Amino acid sequence: MPNSVNKEKASALLPDPPSVHTSRRMRLQTLVRLRWLAVAGQTATVLAVAFVLGFPLPIMEAAILIAALAVANLTLSAWFTPTHRLGPGSATALLGFDLLQLASLLFITGGLANPFAPLICVPVIISFASQPLRHSILLIIFALISTTALAFSPYDIPWYPGEMLQVPPVMQMGVWCAIASMMMFAAFYAYRVSHEASQLADALAATELVLEREKHLSQLDGLAAAAAHELGTPLATISVVAKEMERDLQPDDRFREDVMLLRSQSERCRDILRRLTSLSADGEEHMRRLPLSSLIEEVIAPYRQFGIGIEIVENSNRATEPVGNRNAGILYGLGNLIENAVDYAAKGVTVTTSHNADHVSIKIEDDGPGYAPDILTRIGEPYMTTRSRESESAGGLGLGLFIAKTLLERSGATLKFGNRDDGKPGARINIEWPRPIMDRPKID
């Protein structure tokens, strides 16, 4: 199997999945603002229940619990800057404090009979949306323990004076089950959405870096010409001064050999820069524009030496093939797909090209194990195994395939992944562009 050149580039740009959590650091100011919202909401609710509805309420105890949250907020704001980011342990500890404060407030106001009891899910959801899984699991266990404790609250729910609202144990058990199921479902949903969004953002960032790298490589010829132009004048000056010094020195002067060496080396530098300039000028058109056949050959060339036969089948006449500007995204994307096919092929890979007045298509087929049926619907997601050989390192993350798919789709291509339908094993990828995208007119 070949060394995965393109995938090594991509994997160098992103950490392994377990270390992705290092980017999930909550900003302290965000948590502080959420806590002030909780302080305001709890205060308004207690005042409304005690003074508007006139229900008996342990207002002093409630005020102490709300004040504790406010004091903790003021302390955090005083000790840390607004831009401070919390580590997973610190964030989990603060969310645990919030959960304990809310559970205590619910405990003295009726426990599970309190209609605000489902709010105990909020810190858990925040944790699963922003913190690593192992820290969030600890918090949800603590939340379930706190919810269970609410079922044994000896305090009655605030109600009309002289009346007592009794909640049957069966109803309390139902409320506990509802809160627990909502907590686990919402936590799982928040974690999956946040985790996938984080992976997608990191993979797209890697895509941009790969594309920029390819563009920089394709622009090296222009940089060489610019360097030759900028360095030409000072080297010419050095050469002229060296000649004047050599003319003034006597043949037996001890500095004459050094001056001659200086002049010869400056002339050598000018010759090198002259070759760089001519190389850039001679190859500029070839570098900027590629016929479809040349594009395919350039993409395939690095993978012909790995013992897997690569066959090119052209179903259309070369005389009418599209000729377009060099596109680093297309070159990298096709190269990654070819590499993936070579990685998994048993003996050979077939690349079929065709074009007409409306479309340009490329089909890549290999004789490997093909795609597993449950994988086909998820093709192109980062951090997933894309073939049935799960033990193979190539494709184990799926990041290279994601980058290739993204770059090709940005170029205007439509990709279809599947397995061969001609009775032979192997995978098949169809890539198709509208003809105008791949056929750019020559700019004089």
Automatic annotation (TrEMBL):
It is found in: Cell membrane. Residues 1-21 are annotated as: Disordered. PROSITE patterns: HIS_KIN (PS50109). InterPro entries: 2C_sensor_his_kinase (IPR050980), HATPase_C_sf (IPR036890), HATPase_dom (IPR003594), His_kinase_dom (IPR005467), HisK_dim/P_dom (IPR003661), HisK_dim/P_sf (IPR036097), RegB (IPR047770), Sig_transdc_His_kin-like_C (IPR004358). Residues 226-437 form the Histidine kinase domain. It is an enzyme of class 2 (transferase). Keywords: ATP-binding, Cell membrane, Kinase, Membrane, Nucleotide-binding, Phosphoprotein, Transferase, Transmembrane, Transmembrane helix. The keyword Membrane applies. It catalyses: ATP + protein L-histidine = ADP + protein N-phospho-L-histidine. The chain crosses the membrane at residues 34-55, 62-80, 100-129, 136-153, 173-191. Its EC number is 2.7.13.3. It is a multi-pass membrane protein. One of its GO terms (cellular component) is plasma membrane. Its main location: membrane. Residues 1-10 have a biased composition (Basic and acidic residues). GO terms for molecular function: ATP binding; phosphorelay sensor kinase activity. This is histidine kinase.
